[in-house]
């Protein structure tokens, strides 16, 4: 087992310097370790399942860049595709062939007719909502508490993820008028959805949902819930926007829709993608029905654009990643996720730590505490964050890099081989014991 020293002077020095020039020392809030304490690790390199920090400590990576690295870090064929692309120049501001091939790969794996490439998941959801409003001529957007769709003004209400981690429910800077256009409902609650549509149905442009939420921890839709959402939107002339930025090309080759709509026979009107499809570069997309997408400029009047949209290097990385992501990759990722999730749960049980393991295919997370099954954000918020924090640090000390937040999914890659998995398994008993010491649900005897 590779122990990481308590002291990480390199990361600490860089963090101090970073705080002098960047708010909180980070460029995305959860990276700062605010929820778990301690020094965020400045990573210097990644290879396969492993990350190495600036002090030379290595970790098995269970974050995978928050989802994108389905094939692991520095996959040789992705690096080769990127290297070849870079040698041809990095951006032209013209159409390129790789964009077309990536778009075709996305359309080929999903039920959408047309797709537009953008640079981040935030841009994808923001643009999808503008398009839904332009298409319907309506303003209201329905979202679910605990679902994160990027930092779009109208979508930041009860947005899970980083806001949940930092304990903020809403953010200054979003105009009241933008918030007033958003209806926030409890997840998995059909009655609440029925009531919202009964009251506002003819003013709702779209309902947006994570296809299977992973930003309040993993909280899968109850069977038939997405089909119900598609149907009620259809009934009221609203668009159903399925956000697959996290799940797309990760939980299956066709994302969550591949195990859900493809089986039950329904399709979203619009979908959003990001993370895996960029192969570790800033690339994302939104797409859907051809009659809706036809409204987008230059074909239609709804404006949307991007200087670096469809960037030749990013699309080369995304295309190489998707072409490599075949059934054997998903089988390997599913298998590793099953092993790590089950063994983590078993170690916690063994140590007497109450918890709930939830998974959706190869995405999973563990809610610490004596909870019922977590079907919504309100329940997720009752988890024992102190238990997670102790577990997180013990794992980190043993060379396993978990998401530094109790509200995030854990991710693995097809590069997580036996050696990487074994390092995780070896770290579990001590981490479970550390959690038992602080866990609110355990008996005093177990705590002693
Ligand atoms: C990560 C994520 C986003 C935002 O994507 P960014 O690239 O971080 O802007 C949107 N929706 C979901 C479901 C996500 O997981």
SSE layout and pairings?
Elements: H1 9-21, E1 43-47, E2 50-53, E3 58-61, H2 76-87, H3 97-109, E4 114-118, H4 121-136, E5 140-144, H5 161-166, H6 176-179, E6 182-185, H7 190-200, E7 204-210, H8 225-235, E8 239-243, H9 261-264, E9 270-273, E10 284-288, H10 290-293, H11 312-324, H12 327-350, E11 355-360, E12 363-368, H13 377-380, H14 385-397, E13 400-401, H15 418-438, H16 444-447
Parallel strand pairs: 3-13, 5-6, 5-7, 7-8, 8-9
Antiparallel strand pairs: 1-2, 2-3, 4-10, 9-10, 11-12
This protein binds pyridoxal-5'-phosphate.
Give a brief description.
The strands form three sheets. Strands 4-10-9-8-7-5-6 form a seven-stranded mixed β-sheet, sandwiched between helices. The chain has a four-stranded mixed β-sheet with strand order 1-2-3-13. The chain has a two-stranded antiparallel ribbon with strand order 11-12. Helix content is 39%, strand content 14%.
């Amino acid at each position: 087992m590779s122990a990481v020293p308590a002291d990480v002077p390199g990361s600490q020095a860089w963090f101090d310097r970073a705080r002098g020039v960047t708010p909180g020392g980070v460029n995305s809030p959860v990276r700062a370790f605010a929820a778990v304490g301690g020094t965020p690790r400045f990573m210097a390199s990644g290879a396969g399942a492993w990350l190495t920090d600036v002090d030379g400590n290595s970790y098995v990576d269970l974050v995978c860049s928050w989802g994108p690295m389905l094939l692991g870090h520095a996959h040789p064929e992705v690096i080769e595709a990127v290297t070849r692309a870079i040698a041809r120049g990095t951006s032209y501001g013209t159409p390129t062939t790789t964009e077309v091939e990536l778009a075709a790969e996305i359309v080929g794996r999903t039920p959408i007719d047309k797709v537009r490439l953008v640079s981040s998941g935030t841009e994808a959801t923001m643009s999808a909502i503008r398009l839904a409003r332009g298409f319907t001529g309506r303003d209201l957007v329905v979202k679910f508490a605990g679902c994160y769709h990027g930092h779009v003004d109208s979508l930041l209400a009860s947005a899970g993820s980083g806001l949940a981690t930092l304990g903020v429910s809403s953010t200054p800077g979003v105009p009241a008028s933008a918030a007033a256009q958003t209806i926030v409902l409890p997840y998995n609650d059909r009655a609440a959805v029925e009531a919202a549509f009964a009251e506002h149905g003819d003013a709702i442009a779209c309902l947006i949902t994570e296809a299977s939420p992973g930003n309040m921890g993993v909280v899968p839709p109850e069977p038939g819930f997405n089909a119900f959402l598609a149907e009620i939107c259809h009934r009221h002339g609203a668009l159903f926007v399925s956000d697959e930025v996290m799940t797309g090309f990760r939980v299956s080759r066709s994302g969550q829709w591949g195990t859900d709509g493809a089986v039950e026979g329904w399709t979203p009107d619009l979908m959003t993608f990001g993370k895996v499809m960029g192969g570790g570069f800033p690339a994302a997309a939104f797409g859907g029905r051809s009659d809706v997408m036809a409204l987008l400029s230059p074909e239609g009047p709804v404006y949307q654009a991007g200087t670096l949209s469809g960037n030749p290097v990013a699309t080369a990385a995304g295309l190489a990643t998707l072409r490599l992501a075949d059934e054997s990759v998903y089988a390997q990722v599913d298998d590793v996720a099953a092993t790590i999730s089950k063994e983590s749960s078993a170690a916690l049980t063994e140590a007497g730590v109450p918890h709930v393991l939830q998974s959706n295919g190869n995405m999973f997370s563990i809610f610490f505490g004596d909870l019922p099954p977590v079907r919504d954000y309100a329940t997720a918020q009752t988890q024992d964050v102190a238990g997670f924090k102790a577990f997180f640090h013990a794992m980190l000390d043993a060379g396993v890099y978990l998401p530094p937040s109790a509200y995030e999914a854990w991710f693995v890659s097809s590069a997580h081989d036996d050696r990487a998995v074994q390092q995780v398994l070896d770290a579990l008993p001590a981490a479970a014991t550390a959690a038992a010491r602080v866990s609110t649900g355990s008996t005093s005897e177990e705590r002693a």
